[in-house]
Amino acid sequence: MEMLKRPVSGCITIIAATLVLLAGKPAQAERFELGAAPTEADAVVGCLYPMTGRSATYGRDSIAGIQIALDDLAAEAASGLPAPKLRVIADDPRSKASYAVRLAQDFITNDKARFFCGIVSSGVAHAVSDLALREKIIMVGTDHASSRLSIEAGHKYYFRVTNDSWTSMAAGARYLRDLQKETGWRKLAFIGPDYDYGHVSWTDLQLALDELDVEYETVSDLWPKLYEPDYSIYINALQSAKPDIVVTALWGGDFIAFIKQASTTRFFETTRLANFDTGANYDVMMALGDQPYPGLILSARHHNNWPETGRNKRFVTQFHEMTGRYPTYAAEGAYTGIMAIARAIEKAGSADNDEALIKSLEGLQLALPEDPPGFASYIDPDTHQIVQAQAVGTVVHNEDFPPSKLMVGNWAIYDAEDLKPSQEMVKRRRDAVAGGSEAVPPPTP
């Protein structure tokens, strides 16, 4: 394929497929490359993101987020700061663990990658994390969320720089506790995808509710397959169970499909629907049209309209100027992954010493678009999970980010330190695995 060049804070090499993805059109190829040339790069980062299917939006937004990070680093270097030159290579794992592992191995063998990044599916992430451990390659997760990856399955080479399922469900549990004081709700149902992320999200929510002494009755837990086309039997089952609140871990196109199909029934007349991890994503906001369904409680790992800080406004504006659209949370996650790798290299002095890089990442502070005033995200040295605040709210009219006419507002803000898993819980879950039992279900291949 002919290589194209475009200058952004220096000369950035990028293949044509990347430009097509940034424009929001079908990709002509899966693999793309951007950043420094092979002979100039201080390190190569191999990323795995979806380019096709229901989750392709996350892949194209991640590419744009990576480009913004590279542009920021190039601007720093131009001003005399010691920003490393990174070469980023990415490919589509097609939501298949075995294929993802093969691609990741190719990153090491053919591209001399020193880091892995990305991955949307938690099941795929488990497989690549195992490879990272075997090959001693630092892996920086930017999208998948199963807390098992940083607790039970955590290891020295694995780091994650976006909210995990524990963080989101801990925030959700606090919202539900406060809502119970207002409304007296008691009956709870859960629906999530039948793989690691879905099951761990449900476990995390129950653990978080128990820690807060919230009294409730579980009336249903349902497990459609990932990318399920028809949710009618699940919607009927939920209506029959008559919960006060349904919490879901469905995400992306699956969550949108569920909402669309539920809206053709009386579902939203009889229950509230909460999605504490991915529900407030921008693609969901667009899909809701101009009338918010009653009872929606949503959050996401990054919001275009919260916090209202200069750093967040700048990031959203950069993304919009680059792509002509507004970002889903995947963009800020990918941006964070590249910036974390760059900062670790800066602190370590080079990309050649794994132990120095790991030490640099442990406790690393990152001032990010999603950070509220007075707080900077940091990576917990024990779990290697980033520690961040989270905002949960309801859907309101807001036309500041067209074509969406809705956004989340009426925020409830939860402090980052309050959302960290306790040392006791982390130890208990790790000890359970070490003792031969599973604290949460194993991932589905």
Textual characterization of the structure:
This protein has 445 residues and is an alpha/beta fold. The chain folds into 2 domains: 3-163 and 307-387, Response regulator (Rossmann fold); 166-305 and 390-434, Response regulator (Rossmann fold), CATH 3.40.50.2300. It has helices at 16-22, 56-78, 97-111, 122-135, 165-183, 196-211, 232-241, 252-262, 267-270, 282-287, 310-323, 329-348, 354-361, 416-419, 423-434, and strands spanning 3-7, 11-15, 32-35, 43-48, 86-91, 115-118, 138-141, 158-160, 187-191, 217-222, 245-248, 272-275, 296-298, 365-366, 377-379, 386-387, 390-397, 406-414. An 8-stranded mixed sheet has the order 1-2-3-5-4-6-7-8, sandwiched between helices. It has a 7-stranded mixed sheet with strand order 10-9-11-12-13-17-18. It has a 3-stranded antiparallel sheet with strand order 14-15-16. Helix 10 (282-287) links the parallel strand 12 and strand 13 (296-298). Helix 3 (97-111) packs parallel to helix 4 and helix 5 (165-183) packs across helix 6. The radius of gyration is 21 Å and the shape is globular. The model is unreliable at 1-21, 23-28 and 441-445 (pLDDT under 50).
